[in-house]
Specification:
The chain has twelve helices and eleven strands. It is α/β, with parallel strands linked by helices and 342 residues long. The strands form two sheets. The chain has a seven-stranded mixed β-sheet, sandwiched between helices. A four-stranded antiparallel β-sheet has the order 8-9-11-10, covered by helices on one side. α4 crosses α5 and α10 runs parallel beside α12. It is globular and about 65 Å long. The model has no long low-confidence stretch (mean pLDDT 96).
Length: 342
């Protein structure tokens, strides 16, 4: 068990958070003259700053305490606040594995934190021998692990993640944005075993709410308290909270859409493997496929001219394109276009 006070920035430990009007009075009924709101309109009142109803629904779904949940303005807020809480700008460092989600790098740069990027092995797994020297470095405060990984699509080995958690005196952020698409279980249960673990999830992918920007962090209550201390007072709008709650009320739709996506992924994989221009389709635990082709730049541009937008990952993984699983009609249009590329 790590001592959080030893890795949190001193100014964050001493920070007095902003107390909003809804901190002083949290009731739902009354004559509200406390927050300088406009008395007219449908969206004239500030939202619940701690998203209590949404957290309780998530707590029931995940079978954890609501005090172990932080709701953010997308997962990007979860990432950004981790830098703000734990890393002194220009002094301390973070670490991740390459190739992976690009916002770790962007957020590190915004917060003036050096990000060490270690290459994944040929199977896109963590090379523990490469990471071991950094686990004892007191200057490294954060390690980001994306699992299933983006853009490679694979889950990281649980044993490797637990080794890092057991031997690292900083915070591990496990990004599980795509966890719903795999048959393996989330590692949320490990927050009870490791007090240096933050598990990040999102409503953007399997729940179909990318436009709503609702990200989640699961961790021990001490870390969640730090997140609540640093976040803006009304970081998730009322509209977005309601969108997430509505999604949770429609589990049947979620499960049906998820099953359709997984079935389409398998069909798409088989169709891609039959194309001569596709050299490899990488295994995927997500809602996308990473494929290796002969000339990724050319194929990407050719598809764009037909208004089929994929993601060119040639700079991250040589001659690779990442393809999100679409509707049956969209996937067929993609395959037809690829068949016609000379």
């Amino acid at each position: 068990m790590i001592k959080l006070e030893n890795i949190v920035r001193p100014n964050i430990l001493e920070l007095q958070p902003y107390a909003s009007a809804r901190d002083e009075f949290s009731g739902k009924e009354g004559v509200f003259l406390d927050a300088n709101e406009n008395p007219f309109g449908e969206l004239n009142r500030y939202p619940d700053p701690y998203q209590k109803e949404l957290k309780q629904q998530l707590a029931n779904l995940k079978r954890i305490d609501s005090n172990n949940i932080f709701v953010g303005n997308g997962s990007d807020e979860v990432i950004d606040l981790a830098f703000r809480i734990f890393c002194n700008p220009g002094i301390e460092k973070a670490l991740t594995f390459f190739p992976t989600y690009g916002m770790y790098d962007v957020s590190a740069n915004i917060n003036n934190v050096e990000l060490i990027k270690l290459p994944l092995n040929q199977d896109f797994q963590i090379d523990l021998e490469k990471v071991k020297p950094y686990l004892a470095d007191n200057g490294v405060k954060l390690i980001f692990i994306c699992s299933p990984n983006n853009p490679t699509g694979n889950l990281m080995n649980k044993s490797d993640i637990e080794f890092i958690l057991s031997n690292f005196n900083g915070i591990v952020i496990l990004d599980e944005a795509y966890i719903d698409f795999t048959e393996e279980n989330s590692l949320i249960d490990l927050i009870n075993q490791y007090n240096n673990l933050i598990v990040s999830q999102t409503f953007s992918k399997a729940w179909g709410l990318a436009a709503a920007r609702v990200g989640l962090a699961y961790a021990n209550s001490a870390i969640i308290s730090l997140y609540n201390k640093v976040k803006p007072p009304y970081n998730v709008s009322e509209l977005n909270q309601k969108a997430a709650l509505k999604a949770l009320e429609n589990i049947d739709d979620y499960q049906q859409n998820l099953a359709t996506i997984l079935n389409e992924k398998e069909q798409l994989k088989q169709a891609l493997q039959q194309l001569d221009l596709v050299k490899k389709v990488y295994p995927s635990d997500a809602n996308f496929l990473l494929i290796e082709v002969e000339n990724a730049d050319k194929i990407y541009v050719t598809l764009v001219t037909q208004k089929i937008i994929t993601r060119n990952r040639n700079k991250q993984v040589t001659n690779c394109i990442r393809i999100s699983v679409g509707t049956p009609e969209e996937n067929q249009k993609l395959i037809t276009a690829l068949k016609n590329i000379q």
